[in-house]
Request: fold
Amino acid sequence: MREYLSKLWSHIFDVYLTSMRCGVYPISFSFARFLTLLSGCLCTRSSVRVLEIGSGFGFSTSWFAISFRFCKFPSFVISIDINFNNVKVALKNINVDNLVVFVDFIVCDGRLLPFRVCPYFDIVFIDADKEYYVDYLNECDKYLKIGGLVIAHNVFLPEPHKLSNFLKEILESSKWFSILVPVDPAGTSISLKVM
Ligand SMILES: C[S@@+](CC[C@H](N)C(=O)[O-])C[C@H]1O[C@@H](n2cnc3c(N)ncnc32)[C@H](O)[C@@H]1O
Reply:
C-alpha cells in the first residue's frame, strides 16, 4: 500500500491542490487515510459497498478506490454529486491506474437517490452541503444495511450549527450508535446503524 501510494502521489496531490484552488474543498490527507484504513480493513473480510454523497473532484473517492485495489473481495464506491461539471472532473481524475473500475459516479441530489435495491450499502460517506446532512441521512438510511456505518465530515468545523439536526439525530436516536472523532480539526462522526 505504501509503495502504491508513492507511485500515485503526484497525481493524488495534484487532485487535492486543484480541488482546493477551485473551492471544491477536499477532505484532509489524515481523513483520507482514515477512510482508506477503514474500508481497507472491512474489505479484507467481505465485499464492501460504499455510497459517497459529494464527489467533488474525486479526491475522497480515490482513497476508497485505492483501498479496494488491495482487497480480496469485490468492492466498490458509488459516488454522487449534484454538480455535473464536478463529476466530469472527478471521472477524469479517477482515471489513473485503472482505479475507475472500483467507482461509479452519478449526477443527482443526495436528498433524492435513484436506487431500487435496499438495503444495499455497507458504508455511507457524507461530505456535501452541510445544511442538508439530516436529509441525506434520512434518504441514505433506506439503502444502508443494519450494521452499516454512516461517516460524516465537518461535524466540528467550519459551521457545526448547520448540522445541528443531523447531530441530534445520530446522537439521540436509538437507531444510531455514534461517536464524534477528531481525525482532523474538521471532525468526523461515525454512526453504526443498530436497527
Ligand atoms: C466539499 S465538496 C466534496 C469534496 C470531496 N468529498 C473530496 O474530498 O474531494 C462538496 C460536494 O458536494 C456537492 N453537493 C452539494 N450539494 C449536494 C447535494 N444536495 N447532493 C449531492 N451533492 C451535493 C457539491 O457539488 C460538491 O462537489
Observations:
- Strands lie at 49-53, 76-81, 103-107, 121-126, 144-153, 176-181, 188-193.
- The helical segments are 2-21, 29-42, 59-69, 84-94, 133-141, 164-172.
- The pocket of S-adenosylmethionine is lined by residues 19, 24-27, 53-54, 56-57, 59-60, 80-83, 86, 109-111, 127-129, 132 (CB under 6 Å).
- The chain has one domain: 2-193.
